[in-house]
C-alpha cells in the first residue's frame, strides 16, 4: 500500500491528454442527442418560418422544456440507476390538488400548502422505493400501481373534501413571483428553476461520488452491493427525488394557472421518459448524462411546439416524436458502441 | 515461521438439516497459491462464501494471522483484507476504468465548500495499478471497461483488490470464460499477486491452469476434503481423476458404455 501512495506523488506518466477532439466528443453519452437537437431545430427554423426563431417562439418551447425538464432530470437519474418511475403522472395532479385545497379551498398560508404537497411527493417516492427494494417487483409495475393508487386517492379525497374535481387557488405576489411569473411577459419563471435543477443534478451525477454509485447501481446491482454501496438507501433517495420534482411541477402548475385539476399530468409520464431516452440514457441503466437529458428535453419540446409554427396539422407532432425516438435510440446505440470499442491507437503518444 | 494468512480449523457448515461443509481444515500462507478443486455442488461456493463473510460457519474456527476472526458480513471481511473476485462480477462495462476501479471508495477532493470526485487521481492510480500487473495496453482511465477484454477486466478486478489492501485473494473461476491467451494473462497476474506476498485461493476446473500456478491443492468432494497435497506430489492424471469426483476417468468410460448399452437395448420400442 505504501508503495502505491509513494508513487502517487510522482508526476503522472500516463495521464491522457485533455486536448479537444471530435472523437472524444462523439463518445460522450450526449453526442447523439446533441445532433438530434440541432437537426430538429434547423428543421423547424426552416419549416416554421421567422416566427419560430423569435423570442416568442423560443419561449414557447423553452416553457414546455422547463416543465418536462424538471421531472425528466430525476427520472433520468432513476433510469441510469436501472429503475423507472411512472407514478409522477399522478403525483403532479395530487400535488396540485393538495396545494389548491390547503391554500385555496381552506385559505391557509401558501407555504403550508406547498410544504404539504412537497411532503406528499417525497412520501410517494419513499413508498415506491421501499416497495421496490422489499418486494423485488420491477419498478415499472410498482410505480404503475402507485400511479393508479395515487390518482384514485386524489380523485376520491378531492370530491369528498371539496365536492369537485377542480379547485381554484389565488396566491399572493410572492407565490406568483417564485412559481407563476412570466419574465418579460413570455418566459415562465420555471425556466430558472430548471436551470437550478440542471446544475444541482449535474453536480450530483457527474461531480460528486454519489453519482458514481448511481452508475454502478445501474451497471450491476449485485456488484454494486458487494462494493459496499448502500443501494437500498440510494434507490429510496432516487424515488424520493422524482416524487419531489413531480410535486414541484404540480405546485407550479396550480400557481401558474390559478387552479388545480385532478387529471393533469399523465402526459408527463411518457414525455419525460421520451426526453430521457432521446437524451442518450440507456433504458436498462448504467449509462447517460445530465447534459444529454437536457438536450433530449429540448428536442422533445421543440418538436412539440415547433409544429404549431409550421403549416402542418398539429396532429403530426406525435408521428414526428415517435420516429424521432426510434432514430434517437438507434443513434445513441451507435455512439455507445463507438465509446465501448474505443481504444487509443497503438504507438500514438 | 509466521502464522498463515488464513486458516480454517474443523469448519462445518450446514443449512438446516443439510450438511454442506464437513470438517474442513485448510491454511494458506503468504505468497502461496491454493488451488481449490471440486465438481459442481462439492461445496466450493459455500466454502468461499464462508471465507468472505457471506456465511458463518456452523462450527469450527477461522483464523487470520493466527488470530481467531468472525466476519459479520462481506464488508467486514473485505475490511480485514479478504477480497473475492468473481467470474464476471465486479466490473461495470459502461463505466470508465477510473470510476470502476474506485467504485464505492471514490477519492474526493475539496471544491469550494463541496467535496467532489477526484477523477484525475482516480484515473492515474487505476491505470498505474493495472499496468503494475503487466497490462500495459490500458493507459487511459477514461476508457470504458466494456471495451476491455475479459482477461483485462479480471486484471482490473484483481489490481483493485490488491490496491485496497487485500491480503487473501479468492478467485472464483477467473479463467472459466476466457480464451487461451486471455487465461494466461490472468495466470500471470495470479503469479504476480503471489510474488507480492498475497495468499491466493484459486478455484478452477482446468487442471492445466491449476498446475501452472498452484503451490498447494485441495479437492472437495461432497463437502469434505478428499485430498490435500503439495505441488509435485500428484500427477496430472491423478488430479484430473480427483476433480472428476475421485473416480478414475477410466472407470467412468466403462460406466458410460454400460449406460449406452442399456439405452440402446430399449431404444427401438420407445419411438
UniProtKB/TrEMBL annotation, chain A:
It is a multi-pass membrane protein. One of its GO terms (cellular component) is plasma membrane. The chain crosses the membrane at residues 34-55, 61-81, 88-108, 114-133, 140-162, 182-205, 234-256, 268-285, 290-310, 316-335. CDD domains: TM_PBP1_transp_AraH_like (cd06579). It comes from the Bacteria. The keyword Membrane applies. GO terms for molecular function: transmembrane transporter activity. Part of the binding-protein-dependent transport system for D-xylose. Probably responsible for the translocation of the substrate across the membrane. This is Xylose transport system permease protein XylH. It comes from Rubellimicrobium rubrum.
UniProtKB/TrEMBL annotation, chain B:
GO terms for molecular function: ATP binding; ATP hydrolysis activity. InterPro entries: AAA+_ATPase (IPR003593), ABC_carbohydrate_import_ATPase (IPR050107), ABC_transporter-like_ATP-bd (IPR003439), P-loop_NTPase (IPR027417). Residues 6-247 form the ABC transporter domain. It comes from the Bacteria. The keyword Nucleotide-binding applies. Keywords: ATP-binding, Nucleotide-binding. This is Sugar ABC transporter ATP-binding protein. It comes from Rubellimicrobium rubrum. The lineage of its organism: Bacteria, Pseudomonadati, Pseudomonadota, Alphaproteobacteria, Rhodobacterales.
